Amino acid sequence: MTVVLRGITWEHARGYGSVVAAAEAYREVAQDVEVRWEYRSLLAFGDQPLDELVEHYDLLVIDHPHIPFAAERGLLLPLDGAGHDDELAVLASQSVGVSHTSYRHLGRQWGLATDAAAQVAAWRPDLIDAPPRDWDEVLELAGEGRVLWPAKPVDAFSSLVTIAASHGTGPMREPGRFLPREAARDALSLMRRLAALVPPGDLTANPIEVSDRLASGDRYAYSPLLFGYTNYAREGFRENRLAYADIPAGSAGVSGSLLGGAGIAVSARTRYPAEAVAHAFWLDSAAVQEGVYFDGGGQPGNAVAWESERTNALTLDFFRGTRATLEGAYLRPRHPDYPELQNEVGVLVTDALRGKLTDDELIARLDEATARHLES
């Protein structure tokens, strides 16, 4: 009898094509297991409640900030102690930055870092000789009308975190305070200067939309902070190829970029726990990540794939060019209510960039929301 595992991921070649290609290859590995993948929108990927998904799917590709909520409510199977601990140790040693750690909570492992990402910079090597190295150079290029920046709420929030952390102050480290006031003002000042120099439509744009615009025509040449997609660095994906680089250096260098990415988890409601767990570990193994998963459009979470000559040659050195940023990425608070905080205050950050809130008003509301969500 064939065991059918249902999986849910997100709607993009990076999220969907990758796991579908891997599922087809898996039939040669486990001939009595079929993995069928479905997808949801990028917005739903960040917002759709996991307690709904685990009732219908065996395998879930999820964002790591949802792990504390899912773990504390018994929605996922722990992957340690499931007969794959040797493989788990190998994957921990092959983590890109803290990607693997981001799926741990309460001393257990609830997911595997299938996809590694953080905010990085993107640029057009056919239009400029090199990407800006620091924020002065970014603002100079923006003043020439050559820069795009995704700043819809979740991305504006991510940029605020990244800029503050790259200047030495990680947000949400003190009880009841989003950021020390001076650090918040400095980060917001930089963001306001950038917002005044990029197209107004950037305040409603996400990284995919900005990447599409950056890859077309010859007007725009650079974006300083957006979640990278290896797809845009590959031949033939869009009209022009994008190269990727570390974020503009702050006082703390290129550390502090907000960690993103995606991981594979197993529903606690699955009827086939052994088969689902086995597939998750196979999918995250170095050979699969560097091979069929990458070839299907994926952005691997395994460091072996990041160090591969082949994957770098096919992506204009995407992995080498952004590795320092990933290694120093900022891990968001491990709290069940954190996603609610991010959704709430992201709107406020974009409103501030639109001139609807002063810095002091925004800082006060960020602090209030931080206390309400993270101190419970």
UniProtKB/TrEMBL annotation:
Which InterPro entries does the entry mention?
Bact_solute-bd_prot1, SBP
**Pfam families the UniProt entry points to:** SBP_bac_8
Domain of life per record: Bacteria
PANTHER family hit by this protein: ARABINOSE-BINDING PROTEIN-RELATED, DIACETYLCHITOBIOSE BINDING PROTEIN DASA
Q: What is this protein called?
A: ABC transporter substrate-binding protein
Q: Which organism is it from?
A: Homoserinibacter gongjuensis
